[in-house]
Amino acid sequence: MIDRTDGRESRVLIRLVGSFAVEKDGMRGAVGGRAATLLKLLTVERGHAVPTDRVVEVLWGDCPPKRPVENVATLVSRLRRTLGPEAVTGGRRGYRLGVPPAVSVDLDEAAALTAEAESRLAKDEAAVAVAAATRAIDLLDGGAVLDGDNDAPWAAPARGEAAGLLRRALHAAATAALRIAEPGRARRAAEAAVAADPFDEAAHRLLMRAHTEAGEPARALLAYERLRDLLAAELGTDPAAETRAMHLAVLREQPPAPLGGAVKPGAVKPGAVQAGAAKAGAAKEGTAKEGAGPLTGAVKAGAVKDGAVKEGAAKEGAAALAARAEAEAALPGRAEEVAGISQAWAAAVAGRTGALLIVGEAGIGKSRLAEEAVRVARTTGGTILRARCHESERSLFLQPFTDALTPPITRLAGPVLRDMVGDGAEALARVIPEAAPTLRQGRHGTVGETGRRSSYEAVTAFLRALAAREPVLLVLEDLHLAGTATVELVHYLARRVSGARLLVVATARSGEGAAALEALGHAVVRLELGPLPARAVGRLATRSGQGRWADDVFRRTHGHPLYVVELLRGLAAGEHGVPARLSAAVLARVHRTGSLVERLLRAASVFRGAFEPALAGELLGLPPQVAAELCERALRVGLLVVTGSGYEFANEVTREALYAATPVPTQLVYRRRAADLLGHRGNRPVLNGRSHRPELR
Length: 697
Known about the structure:
alpha/beta; Arc Repressor Mutant, subunit A; Rossmann fold; four-stranded mixed beta sheet
């Protein structure tokens, strides 16, 4: 999984599958000798502290040094110097492996992906389940766990854990592949599961189903005969009833039972499933109970000991409601948007290329929703490419794409990269200068129209090739600040690319860069973010322990997410005005509209409620038409809203911040002038169909 995020703290990844390896920030670390053995032991027994006596026994056996506790402490210090202080915690009584995000383990990543695959099957999102399960299989299929420590008894739990995870991932992959009518993929996964454990009847049923749906019933019958012979010779028993029923259906050329049951995932106990280690009882009872689900249904979230599979029925409506509830819990008030993100990713994983544009005013939650897309992609085995657009880099050709693509491209070997991009190597080198030596960059110079198109095609070719390996999520933040070429390439990808497992998610601030973004037209799906509803603000207030202020916070913010969060933080700290950090954010937002708009809004902040543009303009001596134009600018960026024949601030927080930031003498000038003007106007203007007189603070 590729994930580029600037300014990250150091991260350690420990790989137990295959040869033991330690990576720090993507670079292979040098850990050897007894320090490596200690790290392996702590990793195998992660989740709890390992007593020092146990460490001494593993490291030195019956011949410990004179001062074993001090020697272990020295090894721990060496690991902390190499990997960071959070890599190993604890003291001389016992030590423990650090926890995420400081330290991660490949088996834990595989477990999370497998659980996600099973959960996605429960939601009838088979394409996404395939991607997650395939990524888990890739992590687990790199060889035996701790390959160089085959005789070490302390490593056995990790081997059992990996075997159980691989079995679950293969079952999920095969089941999901059958759901999306890919019997070839299902066959390969089922064959791998059978090879890992010849007594796994669930895997044999999946294999029979895959052969049957591929139009090869004879192969399905042969698979059954092999299983029957194996069980008779080794265990003296017959296949389970479910397996015999499937065999009979194949003989009678009857359609197999629909995939309507459920596989319930759960934590597999270390060592519970090992290749060829099935005993008579396990084969007779376990295989009869296990795996009925993969032949008949979806995966439901839940705990099942030793990977046992139970039948069940997951109704689509219930799954949809559960998904919506989960989204609402994670992001209150954004369940619809989160569902849209999830659906777009599922479509992309299934090979339907997509592009989403998340639009909204500053602080409305665009980045948080984009982060949700990253979370969904990461937990389902996607490759994540990210970049942010900067106004100062608009003139740089495709700079956001350069930032996003450089990490994965520079990690690829030259022949692999050139094979991926083919004839587009030279054009891609213009976009990715760091890869120029590998791509054999051609002559330098200005990128003309022909060069521009060839660069677009080269980037597209690389993304297609990358997506052929794993589904790809490309996140471009602040697209309203991007140059024309970047927006054009997003349009090009959205219109010209199909069949690639690619989803482009871009964020843009409403009212800014509108001309360029309008050029995207219907090529992208727009997600317009508005304020949060009162119930969502109530949930956030309750979470923060400020539930009694929920109504007041909603009144002052009108549901603006950033303002809600910052006001709640201020209230928790005892602040009842506009917190300094929030005030700075509001003023910066207003400042971006230009000095004249800012002056007008400061003057208008003396009014409570609605005001006419002409009235606000008169406070500054501006002609009515100029004041009206300035109000329209503020309207376009969401600082004002229309109320009848006038305007009012989009929320009270904005007005409060502007008024508080205006020097007191200036406030007095505006107030006195406004009082004079209102005195001459009587009960005008009429707003919302009723007589209304603007109030002064």
